Amino acid sequence: MSGPDKPKVIGEEWSDERVKSFLFITPYDTALNPDYQVLIKAYQAMRAGDFERFLGFFTEAGRDLNAVNEHGQTILDHISEHRRSVEYVDALKKFGAKGAAQA
Questions:
Q1: Helix (H, G, I), strand (E, B) or coil at 3
Q2: Cα–Cα distance, 74 to 35 (Å, whole number)
Q3: Facing residues of 51 across strands?
Q4: pLDDT at 100
Q5: Which InterPro entries match (predicted)?
Q6: Please, which residues have CB within 8 angstroms of residue 71's CB and are 6 or more apart in sequence?
Q7: I need a labelling partner for 75 at 20 to 30 A (CA). Which of 17, 46, 97, 101 fits?
């Protein structure tokens, strides 16, 4: 968070502990799939390299990389809609993510 008393930090290195902390995010809406919610939060907060590291921890923890949202989309479906998401899509595919039509 930045503000008048705290300068914006660009290029900050994320530790493994910080990346792993996203594994423990719990959705405020219990109707949401917790694995999908964690993946979305990580995608929104992390640079592509950190996201790829996170996916390793995520899959090691036995989490569902192909969890779906309330619209039946996987994280790969959702991220593929974004123009600047090529590195994120590549990382997801590297770890075995599939689109809803492929699952």
A1: strand
A2: 10
A3: none
A4: 87
A5: PA4642-like
A6: none
A7: 17
Cα 77 to chain centroid, rounded: 13
Cβ neighbours around 97 below 10 Å, total:
23
The DSSP line for 55-103 is: HHHHHHTT--TT-B-TTS-BHHHHHHTSTT-HHHHHHHHHTT---TTT-
Give the other-Cβ count within 10 Å of 2's Cβ: 9
Q: What is the DSSP string of 27-40?
A: -SSTTS-HHHHHHH
What pLDDT score was predicted for residue 4? 53
99 token code pair? 């689109």
**Alpha carbons 37 and 14: distance in angstroms, whole number:** 20
